[in-house]
Amino acid sequence: MGVRQDRPMERVRDLTKLPKAHLHLHFTGSMRPQTLLELADKHGVRLPEALTGAEPPELRATDERGWFRFQRLYDAARNCLRDEEDIRRLVREAAEEDVRDGSGWLEIQVDPTSYAPRLGGLIPTMEVILDAVDSAARETGLGIRVLVAANRMKHPLDARTLARLAVRYADRGVVGFGLSNDERRGMARDFDRAFAIAREGGLLAAPHGGELTGPTSVRDCLDDLEATRIGHGVRAAEDARLLRRLAERQITCEVCPSSNVALGVFDKPEEVPLRTMFDAGVPLALGADDPLLFGSRLAAQYEIARRHHGFDDAELAELARQSVRGSAAPPEVRSRLLAGVDTWLSTPA
Ligand SMILES: [Zn+2]
Questions:
Q1: Which of 37, 40, 56, 287 could join 295 in a cystine, given CB atoms 3.0 to 4.6 angstroms apart?
Q2: Is position 211 annotated as part of the catalytic site?
């Protein structure tokens, strides 16, 4: 009898070593769970039980009650960010986590309105955030920029104020303008003036769309807000013509698989239409959205593409390139990251 040879373990490249850009991460949502506990303790805040357990909370945001619960937990976490030190810690730790996951460029979204009451107003808040970003970038070596995101539950005039604020800080690290919260409320076109202000000020337009509502919401982002990127956009997969349009115009969709499953947009990771969008030629930038609430960070999103959608290493490298190309990173950072992707792919596992 011959010696039976066991098949060697399939070796795969380490996805935390794959250079990539992270384009969809919210400010409070980026927090480490342990940090949340420590900040709650520091400020004497009583957290809802869902935020103090070892497991991420169970959420289902496809109905309004579920979305409300998600927002309530988010607000409870945000309520623990009260002073400059907290903001600095949050940004530094977000950067550290990103670096650990192979990110070479981070664009973090923030609605400064939520922090302004405790930090002395919108302008001091932006100053604190952008200072924190500068220090974290210096300490970790990660390139970090900011997207100011308006809240679609609020009045469009508030969004205009934020757009002007974002433009004012365009030379201090703000690169884009977003729109978040429940897509089922209000119309994208209510926010068209705010987006016009942002675009005219040289910012990229990156509203959320195609997450909780269907392809129409993505079309509205393109038609009414002239979006250059779409937060999520996954529901575009229901419309082949829309996918062609996104592909032709190379509109990057910031797809967040863990978030989609946690919020019940799709039941299982394999149902997130990563493959459909990728094969249609729509550029994708995988993102973690709110790791605090969804329990996984950036590299885990690429892991989902590998494990549940059969992306091989060449395709994963292409996903990483797409994230870099969709970013606002300056040319030298892009070339460095793209070269790093090639090195990752050409080095045997
Ligand atoms: Zn988001």
A1: 56
A2: yes
